[in-house]
Amino acid sequence: MTQGQLLLPVPTGLLQISETSDLKQTRQSVYFSLVVPTYNEGKNIQRIVAILTSLLDAAYPQNYELIVVDDDSPDRTWELAQQMLDDYPQLRVMRRQIERGLSTAVIRGWQAATGEVLGVIDGDLQHPPEVLVQLLEKIARGADLAVASRHVEGGGTSDWGFIRRMLSRGAQLLGLIVLPSVVGRVSDPMSGYFMVRRGAIADCLMNPLGYKILIEVLGRGQVGEVAEVGYVFQERQEGESKVTWRQYVEYLGHLLKLRSRGRVSRLREKFQFPIGRFLRFGLVGFSGVFVDLAAFYLLRTQLGLPIARSTILSAEVAVINNFLWNDLWTFRDISKYQPGLRPRLKRFLKFNIICLAGIILQALLVSLMHDAFGWNEFLAKLLAIAIVTFWNFWINLKLSWRVTDVKK
Ligand code: GDD
Ligand code: MN
User: Fold this and answer.
1) Which of 8, 76, 130, 185 could form a disulfide with 94 if both were Cys (CB 3.0 to 4.6 A apart)?
2) Which of 106, 186, 211 maximizes ligand 1 atoms within 8 Å of its Cβ, making it the mutation to test the pocket?
3) Confidence (pTM)
4) Is residue 21 pLDDT above 70, yes or no?
């Protein structure tokens, strides 16, 4: 073995690919970088590097790089690859000793890549290498992402049994249910054989779980046009698959993770009615009724105030009660960003004005429903209370406890 051919340093920190490769200063950059993730592929590594090299030498002479990312395989795949460095000038080898896992291996490989187009292919020859050229053609014609698929024209699996097919399709169906906007964009979301334009995933913070890197690319990237090329998933000749039941669990976890962090759900959150907050607001309003009645009783019996003044004063006591509960409980997450007496007084003043406007609105609604439509006055009053509660809640949310101002 010739010494001196160094391994690629392993990128650390965030799983994020930069817009323009930071490595351009230290290394000559290329058009295409293909990552080959490996774990115990000692029996395949030499063959796959030789085949990929001859294909890419013809298509993109000296304008590509092959990056083997090995997770410190016990069979020393990384060492076998390292021994080939002298004979294959476009080959790079990374040996990861701390991090593990297929998806992060791919991202770490891309982080160490200089290419404008980034790709991935399995290291066990189950992905037919010739398809590579067709995938790159799709990118050259403008696709942001080109995926090798078992489920389009020309695609398939060699001789998978019924159970394995069902498991694969079941996983896809599950994906379609949990994350349709992502999984539904390609016919074979399980594919680990694809090329993507660097710009489509640059600066997106990735956080994959498990095996399915394509889902991460679709879920977090800004992928425009997608193209697919059919391929037949070959049977493994050497070595063995690393897939266990664990990968299925991780896959589900990955889907859920993407779903909860996805842009789609953030949008939904923005437009969704804040039910919990509204219920708290309603409960506080309900408590106000009793405070109002109690205050009215005390003002009349203890202080002997006239009925009109007692009504107004007791209503104000209820407003103060409601404000305090809302500020300390219903909208606590918002008011804690605007502490101090002055901002609180300001919120209280707004709350007061809005409640007053609510009473006027209520009066208008009752007379409209009762006088104009001829409805029963108690029904009209009940309906008006419901409408005004919504009004109070919504306007207070927008004006008194302004969510938009403090959401940071
Ligand atoms: N670096 C690294 N780290 N590589 C790994 C790891 C890991 O933890 N686990 C697996 N690999 C490598 C394998 O050495 C192989 O080159 C490739 O990733 C795929 O792993 P296999 O274990 O052979 O997977 P498979 O053939 O069952 O699964 C494939 O299923 C899809 C089709 O359903 C996936 O690998 C997809 O790429 C494929 O398209
Ligand atoms: Mn495989």
Assistant:
1) 8
2) 211
3) 0.68
4) no
List the one residue out of 218, 162, 161, 222 whose CA is nearest residue 191: 218
As beta bridge partners, residue 152 has: none
Cβ 144 vs Cβ 195: under 8 Å: no
Q: Is 250 in the pocket of ligand 1 (CB under 6 A)?
A: no
Buried b (16+ CB within 10 A) or exposed e, 103-127: bbbbbbbbbbbbbbbbbbbbbbbbb
Give the ligand with the smallest distance to the CA of 172: 1
Query: What interhelical angle do 377-395 and 341-367 show, nearest 10?
Result: 150
Q: 42 C-alpha vs ligand 2 centroid, how far in Å?
A: 13
Q: Mind listing the pLDDT tens digit for each residue in 184-224?
A: 999 999 999 999 999 999 999 998 888 899 999 999 999 99
Q: Residue 96: nearest ligand to its CA?
A: 1
Residue 242 beta carbon below 6 angstroms from any ligand 1 atom:
yes
